[in-house]
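Worked example

This section walks through a single chain of length 362. The input is the sequence exactly as stored; nothing has been trimmed or padded.
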Amino acid sequence: MPLDGKRGNGSLKEVGLKVMQRNLSYLLEAVMVCWLVAPSSGMKCLAEEVTEHPEIRCDPANVLGAESCAKCHEKELNQWKLTPHYATFETLHRKPEAKAIVEKLGLKSIKRNDTCVGCHYTRQQVDERERIVAGVSCESCHGAAKDWLALHNDYGGPAATKEGESAEHRQERIESSVAAGMNNPANLYLVARQCLACHTTPNEELVNVGGHTAGSLEFELVSWSQGMVRHNFLRTNGTDNASLNPAQLRVMYVVGVMADLEASFRATAKATAKATFGITSAQRAARLKQKLYDIDQLVDDPNIKRALAAALSEPLKLDRGEELAAAADLIGQATSDFAKSANGDELAPLDSLLPTPDKYRK
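Given that input, the structure is written out below as tokens.
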């Protein structure tokens, strides 16, 4: 199977790129071959349990609730209340299709099980008791805030203001809040991985038994984040929900592709059966390999090449759970490094790949 970038002579990058250049059209076909030629029984991941994508976690004991953000982010909170992320708290448990999934899984309540709650709700622990307090909320994406909120709000002392904060203190504030658990959009990867931890539906039983869709197959970070759910009031000091400039959109597009590739590898690594979950996850990963290859052909960036090499290092097969998870780790690190260092002004050749505003989700 020529997807394996370790075969042949030369470096992993060189071999992988030669494979991709030789024939990109086989990618999706190769995924199906990997799955269809495997025996229907006896095929297991090399690891019985693949570690959960850690970014999906939002510790209820550290959740403060959306209102804790309102003092400084009232307009963002109001925008959130117009979105499906907010509405799911009142609507999801009433939907027939959601009830059907719960029934197939043998669960009693959509709001009282880890499988549904992990992605569709925000859970808070108060006095040793957990309760659902919101749908997909601020802390679902930016991380449970108890340990980082004070750091995030500190502009240099009790009387300091955001406007008077020095560049050095801002950098220190961002780094300390991230270290304390905040997914700060100063590094887009921290937020993108949260999106993909749910939008790939990395749960085999939920898909194969419950009948849940195997991820949001049309997900693309720019178009899904810059429409209805956009809340960029901070950039204009609260006067406008600002659009990102072209340089920022380019970086976001690449981060989205790379983070999606990582998450799709993680999902594929969890598959233990030749069924909808595994096949769909692997096909998604194959499509994203091609997208990243297309990006690499237009711009020269070492972190993009690192991620592509890692993606080519392992075939998308049912019996390589540990190896696929390890490749996902490498892709994730490359994505984080890219998000930290990328200069969007140097990514102008990618403009033809970016979705136009009319494609943004409204």
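What to look for: The chain has a mean pLDDT of 87.
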